[in-house]
Amino acid sequence: MEATVFIGSFYSYISRMDKWDEQKVETFSRGIMEWSKVNPRPMPWKESKDPYTIWISEIILQQTRVNQGWNYFIEFIDQFPDVNTLAAASEDEVLSAWEGLGYYSRARNLHTAANYIVNDLGGHFPVTYKDIIRLKGVGPYTAAAIASFAFNLPHGVVDGNVKRVVARVFGILDPIDDTSIKKYIQELMDCIVTTESPSLFNQAIMNFGALQCRPGIPSCNTCSLKEICYAYIEDGVKEIPVKGKKIKRKKVQMNLGIYTREDSILLIRREGTGVWKGLYSFPELLGKKSLLNKVTESKLPLLGSMEWTLSHRDIELNFYQLYSIPEYIRENKSIAMVKSEKLGKFALPRPLRLFLEENSRNLGLNEKK
Length: 369
What we know:
Helix content: 40-55%
Low-confidence stretches: 1-18, 288-297
């Protein structure tokens, strides 16, 4: 469908619908529920009504696909089976358990919220949307998910899958991240879950978006909603949903120094607000006080390079061998010489862990994590 076919704004469209077409909404919600019955999607947390378990799963899935987060979820719950064990753990233990999932602020927020629940709420997980959303790191989507899945409260979940499905079926032609559009979709979902089981419908529509109404190439020919889907009828599936401006990706170079002695390696905790805050890393060779400008003249061996992709930046990692510990690194209070057998207890950025796994023998380290 040509983009020029999208004439007029979404606002004029919904004004003709008088907010939304009740019959279409009923057909839509019934179709989603019927689809769900014949398209189950097993997940290790799906049958749980425990708010703690649901909370952990939803935080993991904020920036992680289901197939990637599955094992992480199982291992995290095994190590921290309830809010008390999570609160009692150190931040380093939590970050280490989170290693590989990225977006480590999620783990720190979990730890902070767990301590709040234990110390301020007597260990009782909040049971209302208003109280759940007060937890550190919990936004409207996560609060709605916990409230509906754990307590079957009438709050609709609105994630990327839901926004895509609603935009296509109801013909939303403005960017789906526009504040007014997000509010409209939220109101629509909240309306539907007052007539359908909130828990069942919320899970159903998210699964529908993930498996049926996918981004890129959705399965329109076998879709039970195609007769009411605006995007399908108008041949606009590729154009809907409309997205806002993309955030420009940033290219970053990081030069890291590798210093080993016997069976130990030098680590330093990253401070500040930059990437991998709070994790342990090899010392970074940057700035006038560093070795960066002396790499060539001192001929520090380049041990390897790696490219790593984060959400909005592409990082080029270069690993140089250090023969001694520079004074400016010795002054850092978080410096540590760590035995290879203890490395598993230190939370490292995933690319650094991979570098160690691939180069441990050449570095004179025990190969076990």
